[in-house]
């Protein structure tokens, strides 16, 4: 089925061009969430049926990134998911980030400065060249939140391998529209509330088996137990032998909304979503006189754009003084026309 045949699963008000901020829920996710909330309100069920969604979402995420579900943990936020990795770094390690990296992938390293963890940064254009001997860990987004720049992951993998650095990828702005796998990556984390169209609070992390061995499961509680149901009380601790020991006990309803959304992304197909999003982004770029790009996020400097969009009811974002417009599976050519029309008075003629 084509993307347009799935369109009736969303109800966007025209002009939602800000999936880089949050994605809109597809009907299966929305309805599963409403049903769970109704059951919660009256105490209709125990929590276990809600939790089945966590397993489904974990497995779907693993398939989306070409990983084994046993190497995927669940959590609440990107920053919290990175905590065990940052903790595993030896004192004095050097971490390389992009100058404009989203801070949830900067602060988790920087809070270790008091034990000599040194965070250095490089511009997006020079990033691969900055992966030099002495860098112990590279922490970078697959798609930059502020600019939409798509990382050359293959080059970053090769350079990191060459200098023996661990590679940690924040794929929050990528998984769901950009084909990506964990080949050569030590960790990949993604919050699902943007391109995976899930409620906020459903975060996923891949940890390579080698990195799992190095990390302490700092968020372990009952849910990280080998058998969560026999791990409620007492001092006996048997944690899951796989990446599940890094699980943060899940916010049930976030995962209830996440599982159907991730499965729908799989059903439609990331390749197809990628083509759809790029076609719209490039149509928008053409309307602004920009050359075609490779991102679902368009970032451009355009004075007066924010006001023009607000007046026309187009919802986009401004990041670092630049207009940021993002297109996803439910975006249409009508959205592109609406946005370009709104910019009539301010775009270059
Ligand atoms: C690249 C990236 N990572 C992470 C997040 C969210 O971080 P957290 O899950 O820590 O709230 C965002 C939100 O905009 C983001 O753009």
From TrEMBL:
InterPro entries: Aminotrans_V_dom, PyrdxlP-dep_Trfase, PyrdxlP-dep_Trfase_major, PyrdxlP-dep_Trfase_small. The keyword Chloroplast does not apply. Keywords: Lyase. Residues 54-288 form the Aminotransferase class V domain. GO terms for molecular function: lyase activity. Pfam families: Aminotran_5. The keyword Lyase applies. This is Selenocysteine lyase/cysteine desulfurase. It comes from Kribbella voronezhensis.
């Amino acid at each position: 089925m084509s993307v347009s045949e799935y369109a009736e699963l969303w109800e966007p008000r025209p002009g939602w061009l800000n999936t880089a901020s949050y994605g809109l829920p597809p009907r299966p996710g929305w309805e599963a969430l409403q049903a769970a909330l109704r059951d919660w309100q009256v105490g209709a069920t125990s929590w276990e049926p809600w939790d089945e969604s966590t397993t489904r979402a974990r497995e779907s995420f693993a398939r989306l990134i070409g990983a084994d579900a046993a190497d995927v943990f669940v959590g609440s936020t990107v920053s919290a998911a990175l905590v065990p990795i940052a903790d595993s770094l030896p004192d004095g390690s050097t971490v390389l980030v992009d100058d404009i990296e989203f801070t949830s992938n900067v602060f988790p390293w920087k809070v270790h400065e008091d034990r000599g963890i040194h965070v250095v940064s490089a511009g997006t254009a020079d990033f691969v060249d900055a992966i030099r001997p002495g860098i112990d860990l590279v922490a970078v987004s697959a798609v930059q939140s502020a600019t939409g720049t798509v990382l050359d992951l293959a080059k970053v993998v090769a350079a990191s391998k060459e200098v023996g650095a661990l590679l940690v990828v924040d794929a929050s702005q990528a998984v769901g529209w950009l084909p990506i796998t964990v080949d050569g990556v030590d960790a990949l984390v993604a919050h699902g509330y943007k391109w995976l169209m899930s409620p906020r609070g459903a975060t996923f992390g891949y940890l390579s088996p080698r990195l799992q061995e190095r990390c302490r499961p700092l968020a372990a509680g009952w849910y990280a137990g080998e058998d969560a149901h026999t791990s409620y009380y007492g001092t006996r601790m048997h944690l899951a032998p796989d990446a599940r020991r890094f699980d943060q006990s899940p916010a049930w309803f976030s995962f209830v909304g996440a599982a159907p959304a991730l499965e729908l992304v799989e059903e439609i197909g990331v390749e197809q979503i990628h083509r759809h999003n790029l076609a719209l982004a490039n149509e928008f770029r053409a309307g602004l006189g920009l050359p075609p790009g490779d991102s679902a996020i368009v970032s451009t400097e355009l004075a007066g754009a924010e006001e023009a969009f607000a007046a026309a009811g187009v919802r986009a974002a401004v990041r670092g003084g630049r207009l940021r417009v993002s297109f996803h599976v439910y975006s249409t050519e009508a959205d592109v026309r609406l946005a370009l029309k709104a910019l009539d008075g301010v775009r270059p003629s």
